[in-house]
Amino acid sequence: MKIDFEKGGGLVPAIIQDAETAKVLMLGYMNEEALEKTKSSGKITFFSRSKNRLWVKGEQSGNFMEFVGVKADCDKDALLIQARPTGPVCHTGSDTCWEEENQNPLGFINTLEDIIADRKRNAGQEQGKKDSYVSSLFVKGKAKIAQKVGEEAVETVIEALDGPDDLFLNENADLLFHQLILLQARGFRLNDVLRVLKDRHNSR
Length: 204
Description:
alpha+beta; 6 strands; Helix Hairpins; 2 domains; single chain; 6 helices; 4-stranded mixed β-sheet; about 45% helix
C-alpha cells in the first residue's frame, strides 16, 4: 500500500474507527514512521504536530488503542485505521472525540460474518485437521444449513411461547447465527437483507 505522504508535507490524516462497532473514534496525523510503528507495535501511534514527535495514543492515560487494520482512500493521502480501544478515547473521558457513546452492537455482526466467510473459504481444506462446526456445515452443503435454520426456528418459536427469557434469547442467537451461515452459503450477507428492508420502507 503506497501512501502519498509528500502531498501533506510528510503527514496524512488518520481516521480511527472501532473495529467492533464501526464508530469513528478520533482523527490524528501520521507520518511514514508513525504508520510503520503502529503496524509493528500493534498500538496506534501518531505524529504530534505540537510536540514535533511520535506519540503513542494512551502513553499517558494508559488507554491504548490496539491496531487491527488500515486502508487508504482513493487518493492515497488519507488513512482509515481500525482499532480496538482499551478505554475512553478522548482526553475528556468520552468514548469518542465527538462526545458519543461507542456502542453499536451491529458492528459485531460484521466481525462474525468475517469469521463465517473465513470458515467457508477453508472448509475441508486442511488435511488431517477436523473442520470447525461452521466449516463442517459448508462441507455438508446448503440443504444441511437450511435444515439447521429450520430446526432453530422451531426451537425459537417454542421458547417464545413458554420459555424463560434467557432460553428465548439464546434460541434467537442460534437462529440468527445459522441464518448468517445460510446467507453466505447463497453468496449474501446480512447487509443484503437490510437493503431489501430499506427499499421496502422507502417505497411505502
